[in-house]
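Re: weekly structure request thread

Next one in the queue (148 aa):
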Amino acid sequence: MKNIKLLFLLFFLISLNGYTQEDTSNYEVSKKKITNMMLQQAKDWSDGNLEAFMEGYIKSDSLKFVGRSGITYGWKNTLENYKKGYPTKEHTGTLTFNLLVFDQLADDVFLVIGEYHLKRKVGDADGLFSIILKRIDGAWKIIADHSS
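Done, posted below.
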């Protein structure tokens, strides 16, 4: 009887270890995909292509952007605000991110906290952001952005 209990315990521990490795693997794959998407966003921004930069956001009226002037709802409104605030290449400058925290909130939801740095002719800008991303049709999209 002791051997059966020991065997059962061993089987349980092995199956638990396999489950943990799978979770870690999915986490790492998702983290890498999110990081790559954000690197593309930084490149698009630095190229002055705000429309391409916005491809990282959900193209929906449900998008929420929280900034200095309050909450903006919707993809189109967020793009229009970016265009007003960053009308030329001198204003968009060169964007870099420093990604600090990746918290997986659910299988298809992440919270990412980081720093942004804008090097530009009209004066550099730095700040913090927290974004919530959701995997939609296999792609990670920002559904909420709080930048300050």
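Residues 4-22 have pLDDT under 50 and may be disordered. The chain is about 45% helix and 35% strand.
Next request, please.
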